[in-house]
Amino acid sequence: MVAGWFTGEGEGFRLLGTRCSACASVFFPREDALCRNPGCPGGDLCEVPLSRRGRVWSYTDGRYRPPSPYVSDPELPWEPYALIAVELAEERLVVLGQAVPGVTVAELAVGMEVEVVAGVLNEDAETTWTTWHWRPTGVRA
Amino acid sequence: MTGEVAVLGAGMHPWGKWGRSFVEYGTAAARAALADAGVDWRDVGSIVGADTVRGGYPGYVAGATFAKALGWQGARVTSVYAACASGAQAIGTARAQILAGLADVVLVVGADSAPKGFFRPAGGDRADDPDWLRFRVLGATNPTYFGLYARRRMAVHGDTPEDFARVKVKNSALGALNPYARYRKRVTAEEVAASAVVADPLRLLDICATSDGGAALVLSSMEFARRHGVAEPVRIRAVSTVTPRYPNPVLDLPDIATDSALAVSPPEETFRASIARAAYEEAGVGPEDLSFAEVYDLSTALELQWYEDLGLCGEGEAAKLLWDGGTALGGRIPVNVSGGLASFGEAVPAQAIAQVCELVWQLRGEATDRQVEGARVGVSANQGLFGHGSAVIAVR
Description:
- The complex is a heterodimer.
- By secondary structure, chain A is mainly beta.
- Chain A has no helices and nine strands.
- In chain A, a hairpin with a 5-residue loop joins strand 2 and strand 3.
- The two termini of chain A are 33 Å apart.
- The mean pLDDT of chain A is 95.
- Chain B is of the alpha/beta class.
- In chain B, the strands form two sheets. Chain B has a nine-stranded mixed sheet with strand order 3-2-4-7-1-8-11-10-9, sandwiched between helices. Chain B has a two-stranded antiparallel sheet with strand order 5-6.
- Classes of the chains: A mainly beta, B alpha/beta.
- At the A-B interface, strand 3, strand 5, strand 6 and strand 7 of A face helix 4, helix 5 and strand 5 of B.
């Protein structure tokens, strides 16, 4: 959907952010123009893969079909998805994402470990749009 | 202290889904505020409109739109956009003009005709817009964020869905007393629990609806108020309109990630707490001086968060303050005596102005059945998309 937000396949799948060469701040989604740290003189922003695993900061779900520009088939019954905000310890930031399909809020807990995996956002006859999903690793805090 | 401005008039159009143009609501509210002030529209030196979206000209026309509807009379004109904080920024702009001597009397107007259902971003493929991205990539609606905050409170502070429902019970009982509110029926905890889950753990009756509505204020210099024969007007003593400080470690609308705290430690106070502190500092008052507060209860859980961010209680103590009746009418610090957004619904450019209308009526002692006894100092607090935060402090 948006270029350069993630890379790789299988075990090698990673979210991509950028890191400021001057102050070491990390940005996701990637910040390619200017470092947003107000005290930073400004450095080059270099692409950096984010940690694969993090812990659940919070979670919720969407029991009603979101409006466009979210793409879903109005002909099909709405299937709620869970959304997980994940704290990445190494980068010290929180990234929101959908849970892998089939994971419901009943299976989630704040502090639980999750890992990033490739997923499908939507697809039509010609194109499959990929995205990232968070998947519980089964490890509790 | 930056000086005070007088509130000469407050007016509203009743909120609800009336299906009419925002111009109609805003003009009705403006006329009510002018009548309340006893000021002729032709004597108003400046009009400030809080922006909404009109086909083809999103947001850029509010001040002039209301000026045209009221009849062109050559006033200075301003339009401001700050999402949910638009109304407060309109008040802030009007105050700045008065204190700078650019105008003696300023009319502030906000009104909207909100679409039904979820708010959504403007159309088109706009991958450079964080608001568009969170919908397109994640399907993350506003209630998604309210659900995340609610669940986080449950994990960190031990709040429960029953605590959240209690906020709705309180606010709906107060809204039932307010003739301008859209919902005027008391809601029980059982009714909240029986309503459909929208974004776990929040249910339909935990989340405020979209609505139509309009609100307006007539502000003036203190000197004009005295000349006008109003010796002791309600005064606005602070309007904070602040941004977060980097790095903001709390996931916030419409972002899909927080800032990283890797290079710089996060500030000690949260963004919402900084909104309140800026207003307190400007007004020279503290939470202990407040008679009542109007806060953005976009969700029931969010109202509890505001108790702590405004300093009405310590961190994690909001549910206890609620259950002890501290924030009910007659309690130590009543919150959302207007009924809150739970009773009004969201009419984005109008709601921060509507909060200040309630401050005015309460401080004048004109709030009838929902009057806070002896109200002297009131605060309103809100937060807008894209890092707009504002609070208004009014005194009598």
